[in-house]
Amino acid sequence: GDLAAQPKGARIVAVTHIPLVTAMQCYEPESWLDTPHNWTFVVNGRDVLRVLRDHDVLAVLQAHSHVYERIELNGMSFITTGAVAGADWRGSFLGTPEGYTEIAVSGRTVTSCYRTYGFSSVARQDVPI
Q: How many domains does the chain have?
């Protein structure tokens, strides 16, 4: 309903906590795949994507995984940010250091840049791939 209420041609940036589109299953430790629930992506993501494709969605900003990713699909950018806490303040998480993502929108172009800020944990233990 919220999307339908937008004027025709309105540029839209959607935000979700758990990713709609991610490559996490390609590189997360295999032991994480054997869990009682799916924590990696929105289970009904295909249904959501069907709704989004009927609107001028430039990007979907996502989080949850603490890994920085940018995936381009059907004219939409799916940008997943890392976390200021990295791996819960113990170092980087699957190669993404502690940080944040800067987003800029200019016309129809969405740019993203992941920034680290020099945090160093006293109990550093990077979570390996």
A: 1
Tell how far CA 22 is from the center of its chain. Answer: 7
Among the listed residues 112, 21, 10, the one whose alpha carbon sits nearest the alpha carbon of residue 57: 10
Q: Token pair of 73, please?
A: 């699909």
Q: Does the model's pTM come out above 0.70?
A: yes
Check if the beta carbon of residue 110 is closer than 8 Å to that of residue 79: yes
Report pLDDT for 118: 81
What CATH number is given to the structural domain containing 69? Answer: 3.30.750
Burial class (CB within 10 angstroms; exposed 0-12, middle 13-18, buried 19+) of 57 = buried
Nearest-angstrom CA–CA distance, 65 and 63 = 6
Domain-embedded: residue 7: no
Task: Express each pLDDT in 46-74 by its tens digit.
Answer: 999 999 999 999 999 999 999 999 999 99
Matching residue, tokens 């939409």: 76
